[in-house]
């Protein structure tokens, strides 16, 4: 019977369309501020379906860290780069760039981060496959 009571409580909470959690309460407080109410552009940005009170904003924003790390890796020797890692970054970028153009509303943050992931990953793969070993490495291999 305890399972039934839990199920009934969840059904009641969701049937009344109440938002449960900290984020909806925080969003309501922020949207009620005079500064926000007076600035229509800011209010629209905050209330957008892909705005900063949703995962659709924060997931792509945090994903930029992967792109920035990949840009930082441009300084690394191509022999230290992983083909499987860069392939995953490139394919993820290509797949999710396409997906982000098909959802409504179009999430431009998601589209741009994945486009840059595909570009940086592709460039890293290009560096890996076109890398020629240094003369010391060639001599070491011949001596084996």
Automatic annotation (TrEMBL):
<keyword id="KW-0999">Mitochondrion inner membrane</keyword>
<keyword id="KW-1133">Transmembrane helix</keyword>
<dbReference type="GO" id="GO:0005743">
    <property type="term" value="C:mitochondrial inner membrane"/>
</dbReference>
<keyword id="KW-0812">Transmembrane</keyword>
<keyword id="KW-0472">Membrane</keyword>
<comment type="function">
    <text>Mediates the uptake of pyruvate into mitochondria.</text>
</comment>
<comment type="similarity">
    <text>Belongs to the mitochondrial pyruvate carrier (MPC) (TC 2.A.105) family.</text>
</comment>
<dbReference type="GO" id="GO:0006850">
    <property type="term" value="P:pyruvate import into mitochondria"/>
</dbReference>
<dbReference type="Pfam" id="PF03650">
    <property type="entry name" value="MPC"/>
</dbReference>
<protein>
    <recommendedName>
        <fullName>Mitochondrial pyruvate carrier</fullName>
    </recommendedName>
</protein>
<keyword id="KW-0496">Mitochondrion</keyword>
<keyword id="KW-0813">Transport</keyword>
<dbReference type="InterPro" id="IPR005336">
    <property type="entry name" value="MPC"/>
</dbReference>
